[in-house]
Amino acid sequence: MMEEILQALARALSFGTPLLLASLGVLVNERAGVVNLGVEGMMAVGALAAFGVASETEALGMAVCLAMAAGAVAALLHGFVTLTLRANAYVSGLALAMLGLGISGLLGKKYEGAILFEPAPELPFTVAAGVLAVVLWGFLHATRPGLVLRSVGENPAAADVLGVNVVAVRYAAVAFGGAMAGLSGAFLSLAYRPAWTDGMTAGLGWIAVALVIFVGWSPLRAVLGSVFFGLLYYLQFRLQDQGGIPTEVFAAMPYLLVIGVLALAGLRRTQGAAPAALGRPYHRGER
Amino acid sequence: MIRFEQDPQPRRSKVAAVYAGVMALAFALAGGVFAAYGVGPLEAYGTLLEGTLGDRQGLAEVLRRTLPLLLIGSGLTLAFRVSFFNIGAEGQLLMGAVAGAAVALFLPTSALSLPLMFLAGAVAGGLWTLPAAWLRARVDVNEILTTLMLNSVAGYLVIYLVSGPWRGENVQGFTYTDEFPDVARLPHLGDSLVHWPTLVLGVVLAVGLQVLLTRTPLGYELRVVGESPRAARYAGMPIPRVVLLTGLLSGGAAGLAGVGEVAGIHYRLLDPSQISLGYGFTAIIVAWLARGHPALVLLTAPLMGLILAGGDLLKISLNMPFRVIDVFSGLLLLCLISGESLARYRVRWAR
Questions:
Q1: Across-strand partners of B345?
Q2: What is the rounded CA–CA span in Å between residue B280 and residue B144?
Q3: Is the pLDDT of residue A234 over 90?
Q4: Cβ distance of A255 and B85 shorter than 8 Å
Q5: CA–CA distance from B6 to each of A11, A90, B150, B343, B348 (Å)?
């Protein structure tokens, strides 16, 4: 019994790791007031970059770094369109998701179905995600740059008056979000399932976006939220063998759950915890 | 430094020029992606244009792909007008196909079969939007996430149906239903796959929604809610109801498209990836290009129909993955929204 619980927890942590990594990135860029729905695409780009580098050079560290860089570059594209050109951030994120999936599917075709013979261990990623959650919590609530970041998300006009370069802070936060999505993708293609298949991100990026709303933009609660979703994934696989219930029900479960979670967050008004200027472009002299 | 000055009412010629420019940019960038993949951009675009616009058969393929886009696009144009970003047309299309198939397979056949199928499809597609539209209208839950999640759920529902309870009796190893009876099949234009009743329906819907938007009280409310929610609230307009209704309408339109696909092409319910080639996503670009005028979809749907048919060609003759469609869609959408910003502002280079 004890053994089974431990095993369940271990699997939950493993399932939860990519979710937590991506969520922490989303959390930071949303705390700075920027919505980026393109996580799924940035994750796919990161996963392909990591897999490509790892299978050509076997340098895992470099693979991870390049995955983060690829995610950040994709995110900066979103930053340019929404922060500099000030186009609709929701639609831009959606476009980024399509573009990321499209480019990774196209350029990854030569790796389709390939596997990595020396996969990366999962544990370092999981530990790093957990540590980062605590560090981010400290950063946001106990440091001056953290305060600046939050103020840009809550009241950009006031931050601007105090001499903060709002757009620069938002660019940095968006790039961080992209790098984390890339890292999450690297975990998927190097450690979790050391192979490349088109669409291997399987909707995790979208779930990460929903998770951040669910946990009320708190890094520590994001850890609990990821483990919770991880446990559900584990249950999905465990219960699949039980028979009687069609497997499609379990496959659809995470998606139904996201809707349920969002509905709950909406009904409980936890959205009140959202950064006040979330999704609003800022331009000096405009309301 | 780039500086922006507002230009709230740009001239039409400027808007058109900016749009043409950004679309050219999108196609150029897509060409770059092709080059990175290892296919010359000119070769890719040459194949694409020659195979679609070059002969009658190619044109018929384009038109066939245009049909669902016409229906879904007109509905989405309306939804985008009130900032309801319905990304779930793919799932609503599937639900329409399910409802249409149910009528065709399980109700007694009659001359009314086809109209009933379309009716059932519209209702099913509309209802599939309901959770997302209600959550958005009442508790302000982001509809992009919820409609997208409902896509996956609809996909699994169809897979369950065609591999379980609805699986045909004489289909051997395949997972699909039995074929529809003859009265539940749409007639074609000549020997093409263009099911013309759906075309008529699409044109009527695009024009009808345009009239609804510009000539009715509901359309007026819709425009005010879309352009200035604050003014709408001040005027006492029922904003949640307008959003809800628009959401349902756009889902219903996608449901019609689903019926068209199963009754006009496949004659059965089958795997979701075969029912739709991502029409629900491509229609987002169709609607965005139409800039809030459902009638303009009559021009923008064929354009994306051409790209979908072209994606098929690139897959067959140049062995490229069908994901090229996502590259086109993503780049076009990014460039279009950027272009919209550029048109609304005058760009000044200042020191």
A1: B6
A2: 13
A3: no
A4: no
A5: 54, 22, 39, 9, 11
State both tokens at A232: 């559900």
CA distance A148 to A159: 7
Instruction: Spell out which residues of chain B touch residue A203, defining contact as CB-CB under 8 Å.
Output: 152
E-strand spans in chain A? none
pLDDT of residue A286: 61
Q: Which of A223, A230, A125, A107 is nearest to A183 (CA)?
A: A125
Write out the E strands in chain B. Answer: 2-6, 345-349
- A262 vs B141: CB contact, 8 Å cut-off? yes
Nearest chain B residue (CA) to A95? B330
B64, two tokens: 């066939």
- Select the residue of A105, A267, A269 nearest B321 (Cβ to Cβ): A105
On whether any CB of chain A is under 8 Å from the CB of B141, the answer is: yes
Q: Report which DSSP code applies to A273.
A: G
- Look up residue B16 and give its two tokens: 């058109």
| B158 interfaces chain A, CB cutoff of 8 Å | no
Phi, psi (rounded to 5 degrees) for A241: -80, -15
CA distance B101 to B121: 9
Cβ neighbours of residue B90 closer than 8 Å, sequence gap 6 or more: B151, B154, B254, B276, B278, B279, B280, B281
pLDDT tens-digit readout, B69-100: 999 999 999 999 998 999 999 999 999 999 99
Instruction: Quote the DSSP letter at residue B345.
Output: E
Cα separation, A205 vs A42, whole angstroms: 8
**Do A283 and B321 count as a contact with CB atoms less than 8 A apart?**
no
Q: Classify the C-alpha dihedral B246-B249-B250-B251 as positive or negative.
A: positive
Name the nearest CA neighbour of A48 among A132, A128, A109, A139: A109
Q: Comparing C-alpha atoms, which of A36, A64, A55, A79 is closest to residue A205?
A: A36
Q: Phi and psi at residue B332, in whole multiples of 5°?
A: -60, -45
Task: Provide the sign of the torsion angle of the four alpha carbons A249, A251, A257, A260, taken in this order.
Answer: negative
Percent of chain A with pLDDT over 90: 69
The two structure tokens encoding residue A47: 């996963």
* Axis crossing angle, helix A204-214 with helix A247-267, rounded to the nearest 10: 30
Structure tokens at A16: 């939860």
Coil, strand or helix: which one is B330? helix
Helix B279-289 vs helix B89-106: crossing angle, to nearest 10: 120
Please list, residue by residue across B310-345, b when 16 or more beta carbons sit within 10 angstroms of its beta carbon and e when fewer do.
bbbbbeeebebbbbbbbbbbbbbbbbbbbbbbbbbb
pLDDT in tens, A77-89: 999 999 998 898 9
Going B323 to B324 to B326 to B331, the CA torsion angle's sign is positive
**Cα A240 to Cα A22: distance, rounded to the nearest angstrom:** 27
ipTM of the prediction: 0.93
